[in-house]
Amino acid sequence: MACDIIRYIDCECQPLGISFHPTKPIVAAALVNGCVEWHTYSEDEIQTDNDGETLLSSITVFENQETNSSTTESTSPNQTETQTPKPKTNLTKTNSCRAVSFGTTHDTHLLYACGNNGSLVCIDINTSSILWRIENAHPHGINRMLHFPASPSPAAEDTDTDTQSEDVTRRKTQQARFLATGDDEGMVRLWDTQLCHPESAEVARSKKLPLLPLGCVSHWNIHTDYISDLVLDDKGTTMLVSSGDCTLSACNLLRLGGYETNSTDEKDNTLPKHVLGRTADQDDELLSIAILKRGKKVVVGTQLGILNCYSWNSWSDLNHRFPGHPHSIDALLKIDEDTMLTGSSDGVIRIVQIQPDRLLGMLGGHHDGLPVEQMRFGGAEAKTRVLGSISHDEKIRIWDASVLFDDDDDDDMSDVDVDETDTKDVGNTAAAAAARIQTKRADNKTGDDEWEDMDEDLDLDSLDDSDSDSDDSDMNSKKSSKGSTKKFQTENEKFFQDM
Q1: What is the distance of C-alpha 499 from the center of its chain?
Q2: Which residue, 361, 351, 247, 363, is CA-closest to 308?
Q3: Are 7 and 55 in contact (CB under 8 A)?
Q4: Phi, psi of 219 (to 5 degrees)
Q5: What is the pLDDT of residues 287-332, one digit of tens each?
Q6: What is the percent of the chain where pLDDT is above 90?
Q7: What is the dihedral of CA 125, 130, 132, 135, to 10 degrees?
Q8: Are 123 and 111 in contact (CB under 8 A)?
Q9: Predicted TM-score (pTM) of this structure
Q10: Which residues contact 178 (CB under 8 A, 6 or more apart)?
Q11: CB count, 10 Å around CB of 480?
């Protein structure tokens, strides 16, 4: 495969969401049975035989509920009206945990979870206990959750002027307190975790938030279908929201009154004051979001396998489209300002460059036709960067993603030549990452036959174009004309070029 799998982590049942600890090799999973598990993983050895125990602890967050139901039978209209009750039956309502997120900065021992019953929970992983629970945090099941980072990115801080330094400092200290959640009916709510504890009820009342659940400081409902993704920009001031209603919205969090003012705008013909814009209906469900080009471009994965690209502050319509994925794009993960990872329902994790649009290669894939439902980076402060992915089985796949973030470009590129124009187009890591993957394959003695076997295992034959033979001959002729210049090109890249 393109990158080594460090290990498969087996969960009790199917995970619906994962989150990596900011500083430790720990990954938490939200399970379909209402439990939350957190596991440890190895950062050094390649382990695929599932030896050793990875489970650190687990806790049942949302229990199944049994409800009594009974029906009555009535006689015909010509007879005397009587009703005969049927025996009561017990119905079990299955509650699942859909998303988890570790805290940042000083609360890394806290794990937040939400479920299909609309509740929000905070867990202390040191004691495996629930610190607080907010029942009916949403009127419908919560589908997505976003924990705000500890501070704006370094690039965002550099762009701020001296007159804005005080505002940046305030956001650094306050931003890590907040959570955003989106439910099945399009509602988005913003939470101050310091006000969610029952002991903070008096403080919450003093902020005049009596109509909202404890800890909720703002909410809005401009979408009409489930919330599929929530992403915060580098400056920490604008949140992008994608929905199954085929639209994308941009919300300015500073217009909420410094995160402390309740926004009770209802759905009508005009957008709330904090909503910067909402895209037109694309007739295609929007599933995932990535912000690239230093905040100038927004890329959205769709149900039809097309990448929609928007220009920042031009939300009325998309800028251009990048087709080519054979199935829906359920997950996007930013690598740098020009490239990202795409997780598709065909089970393949691809490295994609935006403007110029190119498929650079494949990081790996799920076998047996299992889709890529979610991806998360981990190990930001460890010596090995990892990537976690989940699907419709009971496993968490931990990939070695250090090849995407390796700074020793010169050493890795010594045996593989990359065209200078390609390197300029890619930016920091795009072509270099693809070249490193090729070098890694060579070091692992992975030949062309194994690549063909991988394509067959991933069921990618449908991606081969009828003109692939002519492309091979053209590429061979280009190689002979360029002398010793080498360029790696996968079957998927040929397919994208033909389009």
Answers
A1: 28
A2: 247
A3: no
A4: -155, 155
A5: 999 999 999 999 999 999 999 999 999 988 888 999 999 999 999 9
A6: 44
A7: 120
A8: yes
A9: 0.75
A10: 147, 148, 190, 191, 192, 193, 259
A11: 8
